[in-house]
Amino acid sequence: SEVNLNEFLKQTLHAFQNAYNRKIIFNNELQPSLMVDTDEQKLKQLMYIFLDNARKYSDKAITVAARIKDGQVFIQMIDQGIGIHKDELPKVFDRFYRVDKARNRKSGGSGLGLSLAKELGEVLDIKIDLESKEGIGTTVTLYLQF
Ligand code: ATP
């Protein structure tokens, strides 16, 4: 169904920020009236998976950027946390996979989040790009059609 992306993002980020007491910097370049055809609950679930990882694997504010380019909507979630070593990157979307460093963190986790995100991306027809550098941070980009 049609979702006002601005309203959706504002609400979702506000709720996340309040729930976890973690600052989110929202760089929003979208038109206030932009509508996208998607499943709001599933999109929220998808964003929460990445926001939650950004929260668990970084200590700083999380940046979320939203803009349109070449007929596609981009939603980016950027953290400046521990990042992921390039050898681990191909495996993080696998079920139950956790990088050693993450296993040792008290934040816990089952390694299921990203495998669920991959499935949600397929259901919603949202392409997911995850870029990461160990010690620098992680950027996730969602590409939505509108
Ligand atoms: P959960 O299932 O509770 O989300 P999880 O965070 O361990 O647990 P995934 O979300 O599937 O599982 O992530 C898999 C692994 O990828 C993590 O264990 C972590 O090592 C790594 N990872 C994911 N996102 C990030 C991030 N933003 N920064 C650093 N490492 C990350």
How would you describe what is shown here?
This protein is of the alpha+beta class and 146 residues long. It has four helices and seven strands; from the N terminus they run E-H-E-E-H-E-E-H-H-E-E. The strands form two sheets. The chain has a five-stranded mixed beta sheet, with helices on one face. Strands 1-3 form a two-stranded antiparallel ribbon. The longest helix is centred in the first third of the chain and has 17 residues, at 40-56.
- First-residue to last-residue Cα separation: 11 Å
Oligomer: single chain
Please give the radius of gyration in angstroms.
15 Å
Identify the overall geometry: globular
Main sheet: strands, sense, barrel: 5 strands, mixed
Beta-strand content estimate: 25-35%
Counting helices, strands and paired strands, the structural category is alpha+beta
Tally of contiguous helical segments: 4
Find the count of extended strands (DSSP E, 2+ residues).
7
Helix content: 25-40%
Unreliable spans are none
Tell me the strand order in the biggest sheet. Answer: 2-4-5-7-6
Heteromolecules bound: adenosine-5'-triphosphate
Question: Could you state the order of secondary-structure elements as H and E?
Answer: EHEEHEEHHEE
Mean of pLDDT: 93
Keywords: ATP-binding, Cell membrane, Kinase, Membrane, Nucleotide-binding, Phosphoprotein, Transferase, Transmembrane, Transmembrane helix, Two-component regulatory system
Subcellular location: Cell membrane
GO cellular component, one term: plasma membrane
Domain Histidine kinase: 1-146
